[in-house]
Amino acid sequence: MLLTHAYPSPSAPLNAKFIELFAKRLAKRNVEIFVIVPRIFKNSPKYEEYDNLKLLRFEFATSQKILSQHKRIFSLELFSLLLSGIISATSCFKRFKPNLVHIHFLFPMGLVGIYLKLRFKVPVIISCHGTDIILLPERSRFLKLLARSLLKMADIITLPANHMLNFVYESCRAKAKIIPMGVNTSMFSGSQKRDDIIISTRSFYPIYNIETLLKAFSEINKRFPQYKLVLAGDGPLKNNLETLSKSLNISGNTYFAGALEHDELAKRLSCAKIFVSTSLSDGAPVSLMEALSAELLPVVSDIPANREWISDGVNGFLFEPGNPIELAKKLEAAIIGYDSYKNTLSKNRKLIENNADWEIIVERFLAIYRSIIYKKGGENE
Description:
The chain is α/β, with parallel strands linked by helices. It has helices spanning 17-28, 76-96, 109-120, 131-134, 141-153, 210-223, 238-247, 262-271, 286-293, 304-307, 324-336, 342-355, 358-380; strands at residues 2-4, 33-38, 47-50, 53-58, 101-104, 124-127, 156-159, 176-178, 197-200, 228-231, 254-256, 274-277, 297-301, 317-319. It contains 13 helices and 14 strands. The longest helix has 23 residues, at 358-380. The radius of gyration is 21 Å and the shape is globular.
């Protein structure tokens, strides 16, 4: 059984797309998957089924906004989600009797999963992804204590990046495993012909700090007017960013492409030369990993998540987060030195193929599943 609060739907087709990709790949390996997810949008089907994958969206008092858009953590909507989630997951558990429960994101479905563990003595895996363990527990003492309790009760904790171990309590680190987010490397390819394009694939939320990129590009636009900036994302700050691009006189060379499906995203990346991420915080930077797989030269913020993949001046560039002047300097260095990095870009792709290809990631999770089920079977004998 897989529990998550975020999953693609007709109204939000890219919401936590990686979880859908993960579940479908498990199903192709003949693993029966039962996905339990809140029905946030009324136009979302209540039930879906593909081969070995069954998806149930449970009803709750929804405001029809994805949970990451909510400013308040505690609300009647959240309590409704938790109560309905427990009822739906319990019913599903009794019917299908899964061997284990895999929770994606510590909050809020971690509470539902731990309830199942306590009631049915089922093994539980909690996969943290970033904000759920880095930022949310810092918002209140209660959330910090809750996070610690949930992690202590998990049988296995998975984290997509080494730096996130710092946010796991020492008593839980022994059961933590580092497994990166998966990338479908076969979708991305290095192209011999690249256009003079700088691309960002981050969403338009404050945490991704797209404003810094626009300010830096206004300087690049003066010296390298042939370069275009493509922003392949969407979000509540879109209007503000469009207004800023006009005030900076770069709207003619800046293209707001919107949030792209994976096939279209792969095409866009294959045409560009330079990838930029201005994120202020990250768990595992899937967008960067996809860019490396597509052999773009990365210029990314100097945060722990990015430093796990990029060494400044070696296989890409790092800049101080929120500093448009330094970003402009690094972009200039990337443009001028682009040809000298071509051999490095193919090595970057190999780095992702060897460490984060979906097939490798799914196999590592399957190994965890087998070990937990085998251990449980031994205890029951």
